[in-house]
Design a protein that fits this description.
The protein is built from nine helices and seven strands. The strands form two sheets. It has a five-stranded parallel beta sheet with strand order 2-1-3-4-5, sandwiched between helices. A two-stranded antiparallel sheet has the order 6-7. By secondary structure, the protein is an alpha/beta fold. Strand 6 and strand 7 form a beta hairpin.
Amino acid sequence: MTKLERGARLLFIGDSITECSRTVVAPPLGGGFVQMVRCFMEARYPELRLEFVNRAIDGETIRDLAGRWQRDVLELKPDHLFVMIGVNDVLYRALDPDRGVGEAEYEETLRGLVLRTRAALGCNITLMEPTPLEEDLEAASHAPMRRMAGIVARLAGELGVGHIATFESFLRMVKAAPERGWMVDVPHPDLPGQARIALEVLDFLGWSLAECDS
């Protein structure tokens, strides 16, 4: 598995996909993939005494993240940082143009946050692709979201940080059973959709039931 030190702090930051009602329904980690990852990691590796932190906020863009990065990332000194942002950057381009974020700004800002964090903390950083806005396999929104996912993948390779291909993973699940319905609304995955994201994070961390002691 990815090397996790005893007592390591894993911090997740992003928008509502990551927040998942962490402040009003299921504090402090929310009822989505962050909570699922914590449960499976603690059940499998209780000896590690891992600490999980969720600092995602509903409705945010990469621009919003940059504005609170000092408080919600650098001051918390995570050992492992997971960043997933981008659905609102695209969604707001149509709904609230003043808040929408173009691809060039998105890439420049995300690169700057990675470099800033590396210089300040030297922690392990993982960039997660944003999930699709819609589950309709013919949705026009897949094109701009796929470009955002491509930016994340390219930056991860360029900067030598971790990468989780959340976008295509989610769409593969939808394609396998498109009639089922995988979102509660735009752009929020339902619980199985959240579980798909959790599985990608667990796979990245090297989680394996087969390693359990008999």
